[in-house]
Every structure is written in C-alpha cells, then in structure tokens.
From TrEMBL:
Record's keyword terms, sorted: Signal
Entries under SMART domains matching the protein: EZ_HEAT
Signal peptide positions on this chain: 1-22
InterPro entries: ARM-like (IPR011989), ARM-type_fold (IPR016024), Lytic_TGlycosylase_superhlx_U (IPR008939), PBS_lyase_HEAT (IPR004155), TPR-like_helical_dom_sf (IPR011990)
Lineage of origin: Bacteria, Pseudomonadati, Pseudomonadota, Gammaproteobacteria, Lysobacterales
Keyword set includes Signal: yes
GO molecular function terms listed in the Swiss-Prot or TrEMBL record: hydrolase activity, hydrolyzing O-glycosyl compounds
Domain of life: Bacteria
Protein name per UniProt: Uncharacterized protein
An example Gene Ontology CC term for this record: periplasmic space
Length: 408
C-alpha cells in the first residue's frame, strides 16, 4: 500500500511542525488588494516549504503594501514577520516586532498569538542533570519523527498513545503527520479516530487537514460525514479547506449549493474560485437570485480569473446594483482589469457603480486607465474621485497631475 499524501509531504510537515497559531488560516487575513493578496499566499507557500528567508522577504513586502493600501490590516503582516523570524532563530528582532505590533495596534487580534511567539521558556528543573520541559518535548518530537521508519505494527500503537497523552499540541501534530506517512489502513483509522474523539479543537482541525492532504477515499468519506453532521461553522470551513487540498470540486459545489449558513456558503464559493471552478460557479450563479449570494459568487469568479463573465454581469442592467458593483470589483481581481474596466466605467450609470469601478482599478493596479479617466472626467467631483484612487496606485502620476492643475 502506498503512503497517502506523499506528493504533499512538505505541506504536511510544515503544518505538523508549526504551533497552532501559525497554521495557515485563509480567513485570518485576506487583503482585497490583488498584489497584496498574491504576496500573502506566496509567503504562506514559502512557510509551508520551510523557506524562511523567502517568506520573510514576502511578508516584509506585504507589510509595505498594506500600510499604503490597507493600513488596518498591517498588524497581520507584523505577526507573520515575527513568526518567520522566530523560525530563523532571530528572536531579538521578533520581540521588537511584537512590541511594535502592540504599540501600533493595541487592539489587534494577533496580540496574544504574537506574545506566545516570544514568550520566555520555562526555567530548568532544579534537580541536577534533569532535563528541562522544552528538552523533554524536543526529545519526544524526535522520537515521534523516528517512527517514520519503524514497522507500522510497532509505530501505530505508540503514535496512538502520543495522541491520547498530555504531550504538547506540536508533538501530537507530528504524530498525525507520521501516521499519514506510514501507508497502513490502521494509521488512517487512527487519524479518522481523532476527528471523532478528541476534545482539542486544534488537534481535530489538524486531523481534518491531514485527511484532505491524504486524498484517501475513506478519509474523504469521513470529511463528508463530518460536514453533514456538524453545526460548527468554523469546523465546516476547515472541512471545506480540506476539500480544497483534496481537489474535491464535487463536494465543494454541494456545500455551496445546500449550506444554510451564508458565511460558510460564501467560503465554499470562494474556494471554488481558488480551484478555478468557473463552470461550477456559473451553475451556482444561475441557480440563485439572492443578491448577496450572487455577489459572493461573482467575487469567486474574479478569483478564478474569469474576467469576461464578471464583466458581462457588471454590464447587465437587469442585475441589482450590489451584484453589478461586486462584479466590477471581481473584474479587478481577475487579472484582466486593465483590459475591461475603462469601458465598464463609461457604462456605469450610478455613482455607486462608478465608485466600484474605481475600486476595481485600484485592485488591478491600473494607473494608466485611471490617468485616462482623469483626463476624460466631466465634472470637478469626478476628477477628485479619480485622483484620490490614482494617488493610491501611482503617487508620482498623481503629483504630476496636481502640479499641472496648479500651474494652469
């Protein structure tokens, strides 16, 4: 029997090795700016590959962009920079970043997690020659990893004991990872059992991710059962994320169709967008008339890169204004904004739609289109609106226009 999940070994190892607060959470920070969004996922990918230097560079670039375009989200970039510095053992720098996070964002949701990154270790045991708690944990981690090459008959019972013990979450996560690599049906049973019996939500979430990475039919069936029987929106999102890893468009589409919780339903639609499932999203759009649901679906189509479809929706005067506005912003997300948005701006027949088009051009980083719109603007108010957005995209071009206006 082959090991399940071997092609995604690096991903699983990074998830298993990291602390609970550092596990990738797609909902934790999702910049609306397209370039920032791209940097965020590039940095997270580098973290998964344990490429700490690249991750740090990307998070530094991300912080710069967020401070310019989404300053209220910059605390997340500070946290992830500190996390990466800890991985590089540059704890003094990490501690300085955490202090800056508290100073600049005193109410940040990342505050407690950031403190945990740089918390001082427990003191050594008083007895001579006794190992510290951290040394004991490190030894346990090494022992768990050594079971990767042990016979399954010996390894699986030992790993099961680890999962039921009082060991730290990190050690238990590694135990789940090792189980995923043993290539034995009993190992998969042990991972599935964690999703049934553990009271630790973080460990349960890790088991759900492991099942998604594995792609085993029994694991997929367990995920389907979990989703169907759960009333916890957070857990449903975890299962949806596992389906993304497992490339299960069919289950994702079913969730997006039938889920009663609008937040979970929107998350399923977004993940279909991340999978490039444009046909499935088109089916969803046609199957509902709810404006909020359609707005979520067109944003997902933008994530999937279907600029032509969302541009058509944006120009459809039969659609509610909120749906058309969402579609305009989705054009910006699609990667085809520069080609389509200037023409859509001319067709925008309300102030809200014109504003949505400008936001889309900001997402698309379309300074050339904004400069053209500024030159074509018919009223002072329209010129001011375009100029404000252009200033966030290209400050030099904005200063040139201002200088020209003041020189007239």
């Amino acid at each position: 029997m082959t090991r399940f999940g071997t092609p995604l070994l690096a991903l699983a190892l990074a998830l298993a090795a990291g602390p609970a607060s550092a596990v990738l959470d797609d909902g934790a920070m999702a910049p609306t700016d397209q370039a920032a969004n791209r940097l965020y996922w590039q940095a997270q990918s580098a973290l998964r590959d344990a490429d700490w230097t690249t991750a740090l560079q990307r998070f530094e670039q991300l912080e710069q962009q967020l401070r310019e375009r989404e300053p209220r989200s910059a605390d997340a970039a500070l946290y992830w920079r500190a996390h990466t510095l800890v991985q590089l053992r540059r704890t003094t720098e990490a501690r300085a970043l955490v202090e800056r996070l508290h100073r600049e964002f005193p109410a940040s949701r990342w505050g407690k997690d950031a403190d945990a990154l740089v918390a001082p270790g427990k003191p050594a045991a008083a007895a001579a020659g006794a190992a510290t708690v951290s040394e004991q944990d490190d030894l346990a981690d090494a022992a768990v990893e050594a079971l990767l090459t042990a016979p399954p008959d010996r390894a699986i019972p030992l790993l099961g004991k680890v999962l039921k013990s009082q060991r730290p979450l990190r050690t238990k996560q590694r135990a789940l990872f090792v189980l995923s690599q043993l290539g034995d049906a009993r190992a998969l049973d042990a991972v599935i059992e964690v999703t049934r019996s553990t009271a630790d939500p973080a460990l349960r979430a890790e088991a759900i991710r492991i099942l998604g990475i594995g792609g085993d039919p029994r694991g997929a069936e367990r995920l389907r059962e979990l989703y169907a029987g759960s009333t916890d929106a957070a857990e449903k999102r975890q299962v949806i994320d596992a389906w993304l890893i497992a490339d299960r468009k069919d289950l994702m589409l079913a969730a997006a169709r039938s889920e009663s919780d609008p937040v979970v339903r929107e998350h399923a639609a977004q993940m279909l967008g991340a999978m490039g499932a444009t046909a499935e999203l088109g089916q969803l759009f046609d199957a509902t008339t709810d404006p909020a649901a359609r707005s979520a679906i067109v944003r997902a189509l933008g994530i999937a890169g279907d600029g032509t479809r969302v541009a058509a929706i944006a120009g459809d005067t039969k659609q509610p204004e909120a749906v058309r506005a969402a579609a305009l912003e989705a054009v910006g997300l699609s990667g085809h904004g520069a080609e389509l948005l200037a023409g859509l701006y001319a067709k925008a027949d309300t102030a809200a739609l014109r504003d949505a088009t400008l936001r889309a051009m900001l997402i698309a980083d379309d300074s050339a289109g904004l400069k053209r719109l500024y030159g074509e603007a018919k009223t002072p108010d329209e010129k001011k609106a375009v100029l404000r957005v252009l200033g966030m995209v290209d400050s030099d071009a904005t200063l040139d226009l201002i200088e020209r206006a003041l020189g007239d």
